[in-house]
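Q: Hi! Curious about what PTS system mannose/fructose/sorbose family transporter subunit IID looks like structurally. Here's the sequence.
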Amino acid sequence: MTTSKQKVDTEITKKDLRKVFWKSLPFEISWNYVRQDHMGFAYSMSPIIKKLYKTREDRAAALKRHMEFFNITVYFSTLVLGIVTAMEKKNAEDGKEFDATSINNIKASLMGPLSGIGDSLFLGTLRVIAAGIGASLAMKGSILGAILFLILYNVPAFAVRYIGMMQGYKMGTSFLDKISESGLMDKVTKLTGILGLMTIGSMVATMVVMKTPLTFGTGSAITKVQSILDSIMPKLLPAMITGVIYWLLNKKIKTTTILILIIAFSIVCAYFGILSA
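A: Let's find out. The predicted structure is below.
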């Protein structure tokens, strides 16, 4: 049973949520090609982790949990941060009764759908409209063009980020309470894990580029090796190279070493005409 002292220690206030919101503003400043927004997410969660976990080991485990791969349209990052804050609170209160792996499962399952909405809404629509209005004024020599562009784009963007933080936490709290009472936590964990793997799989198919220009035969009978591979399974080579990299990571080989191996492998294969862009 949770004691009254524990309840006070794990109480998340609006002040705590605002701390996460402010820390999320430089969310993409540490973006990288390996795990993308992982450091921004962990940094944003640091006030919550510091409040919820009292031992050095628990805090380290929580930070390590959020150093996994994560990528999302930054304007919806706070929505996920709010939901994850509620999950971290539940984890701190329930201890071993709560499956901490479900936290990363939820993150992985949300980043794909939310990024699709965020890119379409902000980058594909709002930015274009704001830029069009701002440019039309700027072409007339008015400084209001730049000012209006910044206002039209950033006010909605900041509003969505702030509201997302607050509502994400509320949604997460009520959702976790309901599934805990109904005993659905194990099923939700499994389903979000499957959805998360599907999201990562789709990213492999769209973001990993690997083709071969090799052919055999002559004249009209020439056959492209890439066509044969695509007939077996589309994106077979990207899936294979991803599997090899995953195997190397499981062997505890450093990321920098793997990157150097990839660069060397790509240069050699390109030189001998085995692979192409």
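A: A fun detail: The chain has two domains: 4-200, 210-271.
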